[in-house]
Amino acid sequence: MAQPLQDNIPVVSVADLARRLKRTVESQTGREWVEGEIVSLKRAGSGHVYFSLKDPREDACIECVMYRLDALRVRHHLFDGASVQTLGRATLWAPRGKLQFIVQSLRPVGRGALLEQLERLKAKLRAEGLFERERKRPLPVAPRVVGIITSAHGAALHDIRTVAFRRGPVTLVLAPALVQGELAPESLVQALDRIERDPRVEVVIIGRGGGASDDLMAFNDERVVRRVAALRVPTVSAVGHEVDTTLTDLVADVRAATPSQAAELVVPEHRERLAQLVALQRQMLRAMRARWTEDLMLVRSLRGRLSDPRFVIAQHQQGLDEQRRRAERAMGRRLAQCGARREVLERRLLSRHPRVTVLSARARLEPLAARLGVAARRRTTHERSRLAGAPEQLGSLMRAQLRRDQSLLEGLRGRLLALSPLTVLRRGYSIVTTESGRVLTDARAVLPGEVVRIRLSDGRVQARVEQSEKDGQ
What we know:
CATH 2.40.50.140, 13 strands, flat
C-alpha cells in the first residue's frame, strides 16, 4: 500500500539537486594532490584529454578531464600506465549527472618519472636517426663465429647454445656481463668492447631471459644503446620476452623475441642448407647441360655457314682488285679535269698580264684626257663671263637685305620699349621696395614707421609709412 506524502518534506528539481551536489563536491576538493595511475587515456579533437585515474592498491577509479591549455604543459607525462599526482577539483557534470575530476596540474611520480625519462631518451635517439631502417645491416648468411653477450649463468646462454649447436657447426664466443642491477650498463659496455676486439666475430647476440620491466632497464641505458649502435658487426637483440621492447631492440640491426629465436636467425639450419646446396647443385648441372647443348648446336650451325677460308679470302681479294680499278679510273678522270681547268686558268692569266692591262688602260685614257682638257677650257670661259657681272648683282642684293634688317630692327625696338618697366612708370606708376630691396606687393607686408623707397620714371623717392590699409577693409 502506497504511503501518504509527508507535507513537511520539500520537493526539489533534478537541477537543484545537481547544483547542491556540485557545491558539496567542489567544496571538499582542490587542496590536496591525488595520486594514481593513468588508464584509458583519450585525446579529443578540441585538445582536451580524458582519462581515468586508478588506485593500483585498491579497487577505486575516478574519471578525469584535463583541458587543452593545461594538457599542453604536461603532454609528455600523459600516457597510459603513467603514475602521476594530480591537483584539481572534483565536480558534478549536470547534463549526465557524472562525477569527474578536473585536473589543473600534474606531475610524475615513481615509475611514471622513470617512464618519462625513458620516453625523452627514446625521442632523442629517434631524432638522431639511430632507429632508422636505412642504417639496419643484414645478417651474414652463414657465420662461423658468433659473439654472445649475456649472463654466464642465465637461461639465455643455455637456450642460445642449445639451438645454435643443434642447427649447425658454429663457434660461440661468450663475453659475460651483468644483465640487471646498477652495475649492469657498465658491464654490458665492457663486454661489447671485448667482443669487438675479436676479429673472428661476424655477428653478435646481446640479450637476456624474461623478467620484470625493471629488470630490463639496463638495456635502456643510453651508454649501452649507443655502444650497440656503434658496433662494427651486425647485432641481434634478444632482450626479454616478445611483449617487452627496449631501446636496445630498436637500435639493433635485428630484433628477436627470445634468445632461442636469435640463435635461429643467426645460425642457419645445417640440414636445410645441405638440402639447398644439393638442389642448387642439381639446378646448376641442369643449366650447364642445357647451355652446353645450346652452344654445341650454335657451333654446328656456324660451322655449316662458314665456308673454306681460302675461298673467302679470294673473294675479298677480288673485291679489292675491283675497288683498285675503280679508284684508278676515278683518279684518271679527276686528273684530266684538273688539267683542263689549269689550261683555262693559264689562258685567263695571260689575258690579265700587267703589261697588257696597262697598255689597254693607256689606250682608254688618251681620248679621255683630250676630252677633259676641252671641257675644262669651256667651263673656265663660262665661269669668267658669269663672274664679270657678279659685283653689280651682289651690291643690289646687299642693299635690299640691309633695308629688310633695318625695318626688322625698328619693329623689335618698338616692342622692347612697350615692354620696358620705364614705359609703365611714365604712365604714373611706381615701384615700392623696402630698405633691403624687396618689392612690396601687399600692404600688410610693412608696418607703420618703416622706411620704403619709391622708384619713379625719372628718379627715386624715400618715404616713411604712416598707415597701411588693404583694399576692401
